[in-house]
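Name: Beta-glucosidase
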Amino acid sequence: MIRKLIGVCLVSVFLLAGSACSTEVWKDNAYSPEERAADLLTKLTLEEKVSLMLDRNAPIERLGIQEYNWWNEALHGVARAGRATVFPQPVGMAASFDRDMVLDIFSVVSDEARAKHHYFKSQGEFGRYQGLTMWTPTINVFRDPRWGRGMEAYGEDPFMNGVLGTAVVQGLQGERGEGYDKLHACAKHFAVHSGPEWNRHSFDAHNIKPRDLHETYLPAFKKLVIDGDVRMVMCAYNRFEGEPCCASDQLMMDILRNEWGFDGVVVSDCWAINDFYNKEAHATHPDAETASADAVLSGTDLNCGNSYPSLIEAVERGLISEEELDVSLLRVLIARFELGEMDADEKVEWSKIPHSIVSSPEHGTMALEAARKSMTLLRNENNRLPLERGGLTVAVMGPNANDSLMQWGNYNGTPASTTTILQGIRQTLGSDDRVIYEQGTEWVGDRIFSSVFDQCISEAGQGFRAEYWNNPDREGSPDVVTQVNTPFHFHTGGATVFAPGVNLTDFSARYTSTYYPERSGEVFFHFYVNGVTRMLIDGEPVFEHRSNHGGRKQEYKMDVEEGKAYEIELEFAHYMSEAELNFNIGYMAEVDIPASVARVADTDVVVFVSGISPFLEGEEMGVDLPGFSGGDRTDIALPAVQREMLRALHEAGKEIILVNCSGSAIGFEEELTYCQAILQAWYPGQAGGTAVAEVLFGDYNPAGRLPVTFYKNVAQLPDFEDYNMTNRTYRYFRGEPVFPFGYGLSYTTFDYETPELSSEVVSLSEEATLTVSVTNSGDFDGEEVVQLYLQKPDDADGPLLTLRGFKRVFIAQGETVDVKFQLTPEVIEWWNAEAQRMTPLGGDYRLMVGSSSRMEDLQAVPLTVVAP
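Structure predicted for Beta-glucosidase:
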């Protein structure tokens, strides 16, 4: 930071008069981004400067500066901008324990992001989710399975978050050389931020032990800043030790800027600055001017929200000087020049990436490989898996068996196609096998959706009359008139129009039909929309939605009477990016467990696809159902209705294979009694159904490992709002979980020989090597995840053990592979009480090597580290 500000601000800003910087340096890419930014800074009015410190940079027409929107997402694929390849949710990627795979995924994601950006730009679009600054990755430690957003992170271990988060950054940003940066990644949410969701705008993470701060909450951010050269950091909503994170001098200035030397852009989480002065939130500041000035002075350069316009008055009131404001703005401008966003596309090499690569078959193959590697086999009694094909009758059941939207996770794009788990099983089985599908339950509660779309009749028959206009306001006569006979699945991704002759953008539609209910009751209208939608019943508006955050699931319900007719009119208009409209209508029927069990009575095996959904766990959601509150979970058990179904199937003598989809740990206490096998499939992305089927039938040997502890129940968890690490995560948990961190099964077996150290005594200035030989002694080729942990026996307050390395290696049947770990300073880092920081530290340690964090799966090797 200081390196650039002194060199650029003092030389290029204050000494510009009479120098080369008095010319149009900012327009010339022969100059450095720092020089160009410094030159442009001198040409801006105060009002223009402030406008450039918002997430939507307004155009400055007098200078020819185009609009730029900083807000874009790429959590596991380009998000909320229409068609894109959808990879597994980050917690699923973490289950792969494969850094190289994560790097490859985000190299592909950055290709798609660049291609989409230049396509949007060619259409004159500069909106949200169309830029080059991706607010990814989330590297907060998943310290408690109740946190709804934990699925966005890379598990509960700070080392793993740092290693995989750095791979994300490197994949997104590309090699930083003399040319333009490919994209800018963003490490979020800085720091000490992992739920609850319901009070995040007022919560104070306080009384945090310095050791917990530096040993657990900061290491991943430090690694991304120092090793990953991440170009953006997002500060969190909550307070830390009394101060809002976005104005915390300790976090933002002392640690991030001064200690770590971060010289990139800090962006506030969206509307986080408003929380400073909102009486229902932190209320630490009297007004927007004071809040905004404090945030900028603490190093928050960019405001996602609407507080920073008050900086104009803040300058006038003397709360901040224009020169102090320039320090932040300079970083913002440098970033825009680093990306080439201020220059014509023909000057930017990345603009040559063709749009045809977006959601391409090749990228789909990578999504499948990522889904395969995320599959985590937790139980396989009597080697029941893999299942044998040939005359097999399979019942596929459960709320997640045929749900493509669940597989997409959250902060997602829309894939060209999705294979559900039901579809994957059907496609994998042979002609003499049979599948019976019986959903049986929803996620929660005693009702289940049943479509009545066929009871909607237009003048042309079953379905809806569809009228389209090639303008956004349905002006004039419709340009296209057609009929829609099935539930709507419209999406303009891949240049696919809603109907022949309809524009891809700037179009509108009206769909009309008459609904003749065959019985009275409460009917549900389900929408998944990206656009502007309005529904009228008998001419009266009853539902409206404008998608500001990409595709969103919406619902409207009403009571209907048998024998009446209801005129339905659904209006739609393109709003931003790629348009999307999914629509269906149906009843919520009562769950009938005995009837469902009876319908699968004659099957050989039941594959029950259980779990929860990103529509239940996630960011600050309005969900209030048993076990869920505001996006978080209040119970980690499988929802009661699913447990009841599994119990009934077990009592009926059915053999049950449980495939669980969730973004967080499930307390599988009862399920161990009912189920012969348990496969944790996470939210596996577009190809998840194929990956699950390949594992179930032995076409792929699973090697996923748990990146989070699967506790038995909430009684094993500390207070959700307590951020101290006592009894949290595998590193400090002293109880017995259902399944430990790092655990997962294979269809083959691996034998470990005694690990060998190149030297059992090493200096802090030296590096040693640990080698362990692993043999595949089973009947299948397979991959093993070899894990390295560090333990310091004389540190009673420290972690029981802590991850310091992992390697996923392929080992053919009967073969042996030597796996080596370099004992770098990062590996032997430990809490230094004198320095109050994590440093390489002398002392006696144990290196623990094996297949999971469970002690019986590890072999210990003593190591002594001495000062040079």
